[in-house]
Design brief:
Protein name: (northern house mosquito) hypothetical protein
Helix content: 40-55%
InterPro entries: Bdbt-like_TPR, FKBP4/5/8-like, FKBP_N_2, TPR-like_helical_dom_sf
Strand content: 15-25%
Oligomer: single chain
Strand order of the largest sheet: 1-2-5-6-3-4
Structural class: alpha+beta
Length: about 300
């Protein structure tokens, strides 16, 4: 009787392949995943808090793009990826694709960029810590929000859009316990509640900075509305609000905003104040000139 060699690989049965889409596409993000193989031992997908053991190989066209996950010098080696840990755009999209995979799935993945596409083969070997936000306590969510915030700070200078994603994610972690004023100090801990409120204010400023960098000045003003309700706003909050007002030509309002603090002692604020006054005078002169032409 013939014995089948043990080293011959078999294609998975059709009923197993039917469990996983042969092609998954996210046109909005330029992502594509084509199934190569799948062994149905578990129908688990990674959650937002999972650690995933993966194998990545056959990376092509990465070029000069930064990535901590796609390692050209270590092709095919196993590595752990913690969801939400990426600090480069390529790695962020690797996570987005990974979130759509099942354990023991192997797929050809493509990330479309402005100049070309990055391609690689991704295999999900194991998932650990497959938890979800709603299972976490306020203290645990505070720790997670701090982690997301630090990731945002790390990538803000080079990748402000990615930083914006992290700051938003951190804020959502904290706002899942809103309204914060109803949290019970006896249950959540007074220090935890105070830390949540403090971090949320910092995140609002960080998100406003991202919006300013994207020239979304009206959105930044909306994000900074809370500054008007503060008795002692920080110079950073005042500066960013006044800067947004300056860019939408609310010069008078911007001056009033800066005058809420001793702006002259802050280099950024004093420079902005001078620019606002200069533009305010130009606007007044332009208006006076128009009046003279109409009625002079």
């Amino acid at each position: 009787m013939d014995v089948e060699p043990t080293n011959v690989s078999r294609s998975p049965p059709r009923d197993e392949l039917a469990l996983v889409p042969s092609v998954w596409v996210d046109d909005g993000k330029g992502l594509r995943k084509e199934l190569i193989s799948f062994s149905c031992k578990s129908m688990k997908k990674p959650s937002e808090l999972s650690r995933c053991l993966v194998k990545i190989g056959d990376v092509s066209d990465l070029g000069t793009r930064e990535s901590n996950f796609l390692k050209l010098d270590e092709p095919g080696n196993e590595q752990w990826i913690s969801m939400g840990s990426s600090v480069t755009p390529i790695d962020y999209y690797v996570e987005q694709i990974l979130a759509q995979m099942f354990t023991n799935e192997r797929s050809r993945c493509t990330i479309s960029c402005k100049s070309g596409s990055v391609s690689f083969v991704l295999e999900l070997l194991r998932i650990e810590d497959n938890e979800y936000y709603f299972t976490r306590s306020s203290a645990q969510m505070l720790t997670l929000a701090k982690q997301y915030k630090e990731n945002g700070v790390k990538c803000f200078a080079k990748y402000p859009l990615l930083a914006h994603q992290f700051f938003n994610r951190a804020a959502k972690c904290l706002l899942s316990f809103a309204p914060l004023e109803y949290l019970d100090p006896a249950i959540e801990g007074a220090d935890t509640i105070a830390s949540i409120q403090s971090l949320l204010e910092t995140l609002n400023l960080n998100i406003a900075a991202c919006l300013l960098k994207q020239n979304r000045f009206d959105d930044a003003l909306h994000m900074l509305e809370y500054v008007d309700r503060q008795n002692n706003p920080s110079p950073k909050a005042i500066y960013r609000k006044a800067l947004a007002q300056f860019h939408v030509k609310q010069y008078t309002e911007a001056v009033k905003t800066l005058q809420r603090i001793d702006y002259a002692t802050n280099k950024e604020c004093s420079t902005l104040y001078a620019n606002i006054v200069t533009n305010l005078e130009k606007e007044k002169e332009k208006y006076n000139s128009m009046v003279r032409k109409m009625f002079g």
